[in-house]
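Summary of Year 1 activities. Much of the first year was spent building the evaluation harness for sequence design. The harness presents a backbone, in tokenized form, and records the residue chosen at every position. We chose the following record to illustrate the format because it has been used consistently in internal testing since the harness was completed.
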């Protein structure tokens, strides 16, 4: 019987609702566990783009994160339970003053087109991300939508400086995000105001490159043998796009897939009983029930929604405890977040706030993705909790790509 190991990646939940997903890992035999030539991964959701600057979804960053890299890498210290930021493409950096940071790149880093990484590539990449990336705009612009960077000064091929308009302490943390990934200067400038559409222009410094992509079916990656941080042991990776979780599990159990992503919590014990070992890790994914403040402008109504929902019950009963309740719109493992005050379940307080606000005389629509049955189940629980305090909710389910567009691009939602 094949040796099977299951890694459970536990994602952090939530401001109003909670959701966990899992990665189940099957290794063919203990003897050849590090010599697999081709790794097949069954994922629940197709990528929404091949352009890293337009990436927003989990699948986007899972796949493109093997192709592109940012200046810094985010890691998690399990002892301190804090995120750490490791210089990655950067060799060293210093903060000269409150608004001036000086960086030196590592030598001999090559892109997939065999050109060497230079500071000019970094400048063009950051400027593109700051200009067109949905996440990049959030990371590199202030609350008024103005860029926080005044200029990027290139001194030579490996040394550059970032001059800020005003002091910005979390600069390194923001530059670590994959939405600020580095690409060749000519590609960044070619696509300065439009999306990358050709696989030939999907060029990064990562350990793999995309060789084939059939929307809705699969994405194939090939190892980049000149990778600066050492050739990876696995030669190729194929992401199999399988939306139905039962079909993904079947692919895992029959050996068609080595990894199945997005396994519901209540399926874990079944897989464990079949020889899969479950390993849990803390992740940084945060799932929220976002509130459109333009459509729900009264802060007391929004506060009431937070008090009305028993988030701990969702974690325990729906997610089988494979998650934790978040206390803000950021994961508790980010600096300063853990100390923030949590909304404790109190329907009485929710009802009082709604009364003080003068009530809510309309039915709200809660959008949710069909990506996972758990998404829909949690939406139904939210609907039930809110109805108990007098807030009427209609649930609208959408295919995941359409859901992302409606929420993140069109901003057309109540919840």
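For this record, the design step produced the sequence shown next.
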């Amino acid at each position: 019987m094949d040796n099977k190991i299951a890694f459970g990646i536990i994602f952090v939940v939530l401001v109003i609702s909670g959701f966990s997903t899992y990665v189940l890992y099957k290794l063919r035999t203990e003897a050849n566990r590090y010599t697999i030539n081709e790794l097949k991964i069954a994922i629940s959701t197709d990528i929404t783009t091949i352009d890293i600057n337009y990436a927003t979804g989990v699948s986007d960053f899972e796949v493109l994160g093997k192709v592109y890299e940012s200046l810094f890498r985010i890691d998690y210290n399990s002892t301190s339970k804090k995120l750490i930021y490791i210089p990655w493409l950067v060799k060293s950096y210093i903060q000269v003053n409150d608004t001036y940071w000086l960086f030196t790149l590592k030598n001999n880093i090559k892109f997939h087109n065999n050109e060497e990484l230079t500071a000019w590539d970094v400048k063009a990449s950051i400027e593109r991300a700051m200009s067109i990336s949905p996440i990049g705009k959030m990371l590199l612009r202030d609350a008024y939508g103005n860029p926080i960077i005044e200029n990027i000064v290139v001194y030579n091929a490996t040394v550059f400086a970032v001059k800020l308009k005003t002091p910005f302490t979390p600069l390194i943390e923001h530059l670590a995000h994959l939405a600020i990934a580095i690409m060749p200067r000519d590609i960044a400038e070619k696509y300065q105001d439009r999306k990358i559409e050709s696989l030939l222009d999907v060029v990064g410094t990562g350990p793999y490159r995309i060789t084939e992509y059939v929307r809705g079916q699969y994405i194939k990656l090939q190892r980049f043998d000149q990778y600066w941080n050492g050739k990876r042991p696995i030669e190729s990776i194929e992401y199999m796009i399988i939306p139905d979780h039962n079909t993904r599990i079947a692919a895992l159990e029959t050996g068609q897939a080595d990894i199945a992503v997005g396994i519901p919590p209540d399926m874990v014990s079944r897989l464990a009983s079949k020889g899969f070992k479950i390993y849990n890790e803390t992740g940084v994914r945060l799932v929220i029930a976002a509130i459109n403040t333009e459509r729900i402008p009264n802060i007391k109504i929004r506060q009431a929604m937070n008090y009305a929902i028993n988030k701990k019950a969702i974690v325990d009963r729906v997610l089988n405890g494979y998650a934790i309740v978040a206390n803000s719109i950021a994961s508790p493992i980010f600096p300063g977040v853990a100390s923030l005050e949590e909304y404790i379940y109190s329907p009485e307080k929710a009802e009082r706030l709604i009364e003080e606000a003068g009530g809510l005389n309309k039915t709200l629509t809660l959008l949710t993705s069909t990506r996972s049955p758990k998404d829909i189940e949690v939406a139904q629980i939210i609907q039930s909790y809110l109805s108990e305090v007098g807030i009427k909710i209609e649930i609208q389910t959408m295919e995941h790509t359409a859901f992302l567009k409606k929420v993140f691009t069109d901003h057309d939602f109540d919840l």
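The two ends are 47 Å apart (CA to CA). Quantitative recovery figures across the full test set are reported in Table 2.
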